[in-house]
Design goal:
The complex is a heterodimer of chains A (about 375) and B (about 290). Chain A is α/β, with parallel strands linked by helices. In chain A, about 40% of the residues lie in helices and about 20% in strands. Chain A folds into two domains: about 190 residues, Rossmann fold, CATH 3.40.50.970; about 110 residues, Rossmann fold (3-Layer(aba) Sandwich), CATH 3.40.50. In chain A, strands 2, 3, 4, 5, 6, 7, 8 and 14 form an eight-stranded mixed sheet that branches. Chain A is globular and about 70 Å long. The termini of chain A are far apart. By secondary structure, chain B is of the alpha/beta class. Helices cover about 35% and strands about 15% of the residues of chain B. Chain B has eleven helices and eight strands. The longest helix of chain B is centred in the first third of the chain and has 15 residues. The N and C termini of chain B lie far apart (about 60 Å). The chains are: A alpha/beta (about 375), B alpha/beta (about 290). β10 of chain A pairs parallel with β2 of chain B, so a sheet runs across the interface.
Chain lengths: ~375, ~290
Amino acid sequence: MKADPHGVLTGTHFLDGDHACCEGALAAGARFAAGYPITPSTEVVERFAARVPTVGGTFIQMEDELAASIALQGGVWGGAKAFTVTSGPGFSLMMEHIGYAAMTETPCVFVDVQRGGPSTGLPTLPAQADMMQARWGSHGDYEIIALCPNSPQECFDLTIKAFNLAEEYRVPVMFMMDEVVGHMTEKVVIPPADQIEVTPRKHTRKSVEDYLPYQTNGDMVPEMAHAGEGYKFHVTGLTHDERGYPNMTPPVQDKLVRRLQNKIRSAADRICLGEEDRLDDADIVVVSYGITSRVAQRAIDAARNRGLRVGKLRLITAWPFPDKKIADLAAHVKAFVVPELNLGQMVREVQRAADGKAKTVAVSHAGGGVHNPDEILNAIVEASRC
Amino acid sequence: MLNILDDTANPVEPFLRGDRMPHIWCPGCGIGTTVNSFARALIDSKIDLESLALVSGIGCTGRVAGYVKLDSFHTTHGRAIPFATGLKLANPKLNVVVYSGDGDLSAIGGNHLIHAARRNIDLKVICVNNLIYAMTGGQTAPTTPSHATTSTNPYGTFEPAFNLPHLVEAAGAVYVARWTTFHVRQLARSISEAFQKKGFSFIEVISPCPTLYQRRNKMGDGLDTMKYYKERSKIKNGAPTSEVGLTLNGEIVVGKFVDRDRPDYQTMMRAQYVEILGERYIEESEMECVCG
């Protein structure tokens, strides 16, 4: 379906990533947000608080991130598209409810504008060190989707994508920004509403008698109902059967948890987005994401100017990880160079997917700034000598 | 002639998920009794069941959500109130009941309890207070009276307990009552009254846990506890909540303590937006459906 024009601020704007993310959420149809202030993410909900009463929705500032991350799920079951926004310390507090959203298949978006950690770390400075937490932070086996924008324009475009994926797969989607992308101001073009595709909720059309809340029809994603529609359904974070009833037996656990994984894993090829450049003749591939991809671009260009055969793979989707893409590249390149604002997170995934067929070089940075392009260039030069 | 079959038809059965029985609660537990009173309140208040949602946290009382034939949400430990807040804000037409235990609502969820009362979110909170963490085996709760024995205070507790009616009144609740599971009719009446209130309502129900609290404190079984509730409860409607704290084996002051009016969160929100934004304000009810 097309976007509700009420929420779409069509035009050419000069926005920072946080504000652009908010506009993306509104364009995607988000009409409920629950938040708790935390630098460097707060501008997203500040703008939402100002905008949403004029488009038919609600913002509430909750008492903490635990409350925000579950209030938004109440909003979803009440019929809204909903999200919350945070940064590292708040993201840590939200982990239990990421698990709850995964288990109850509540479509929603968690925006994490990453800053340096651990703990209070660097509140006003960038990092990309929540990437593994986004994937593994809650307990138990589950899958999520994570997207990494590298510009304010992408903060707009990909926030819409994040909501669409959340609805399509009934899964929490992590929107992994970083402080630089959140606070950099650039041109953002917001198209007319009729040019924005939004994915509607997978709402059941079944009668009350025929509806089972967690029954699937082949595609592994059950149909949803909202409170107040007469279905009288039950939702629980306990292991549950197709009726939504608790059933704590190994076979039901196995069936449920495998489905929660497989509905994402089996669709990984369709979910995984990336940006590729000059991979055809490359024997070195720089794998990067978020703000680091823009620093990497300069290093790649400099390396090409020196005659080195370097290509670019930018991860737009970090989770599910594009295993196949990396494996295909590993078959004919010498090395992957992986710069990131952490001491080595996604590089482990690259190494795993490359499976020894190509060398993997980490260009780590503890956060607080971005790489100097020369650091990445040196790693490329070094790798090409092997 | 007396028709035994008709007399045994349970009037609250239509409110329960029969296919989930038997329930998990122990013999002598009071939670089922509170559900009975809740169902009677639904009958008495003729409330539209399709617009009623029930939200529970974790614990023995948290299991109520799974047994009632309503839109029901069994959420995470302590977070029933913030979940219910989101549900109510996204769909203001819903009647939202939070049904959970003392540990869930006042310990891990204590912050949400006071803030929802402060905001005066239109929620009906039923807090079954068995004075202990029952699901996990009888540990000390913020409500456990001093000197009671628990599995984590084997030599007796020494922390002061929360006086929940006093706490929620101070935080802003518009309706506060306390009953025991002996007072089934009064409890049903209070729940019906709370449905008539707009704003944060809190009903505490003192309830036995014969398996863990009564046994460990040598207070007998479920029936002995009923006798205790009958003998030591004192109805004091309008009692100052500062004076209704519970003690081990002491008097239990019950009644309706607070019944006052102040605008609820959504009323205040609309008034503020209308005043400041005028015609630019679009209410949620005018929102387009997300379903396509």
